[in-house]
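STRUCTURE REQUEST FORM
Protein name: SAP domain-containing protein
Source organism: Littorina saxatilis
Requested output: structure tokens
Priority: standard
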Amino acid sequence: MKKFGDMTLADLRTECKKRGAKQDGRKNDLVDRLEAYVKNANFGRKDDQQEKAFSLDVPEPSTYRDINLDTPLPAVTRKLVDGYLLSVDADLKQVSKSLYEETYLQYRQSLP
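Status: completed
Returned output:
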């Protein structure tokens, strides 16, 4: 790694220009900028460091068993459905009412 701190301001600007980095600022700024560039120069590259290929051993599909195949479904009756819909409808009516009232109050407050 180059010692940027030992370089002149003109040399630092030349190095920044080579890398397409900003060339303005104090010497310390240029040194920091170049050191950060060198530190991150290989970021996202896979030049020398090839990642190990991911592999997953999966059993044959014929060895799988559907665990829900033998599970009985619960009986669904009209009474259960009506009870559920009544509770949902009551909640929706309350939400609608509160939204309406909130909007109405905002409208009233905005009137002169």
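Reviewer notes: The longest helix spans residues 78-110. The radius of gyration is 34 Å.
Form closed.
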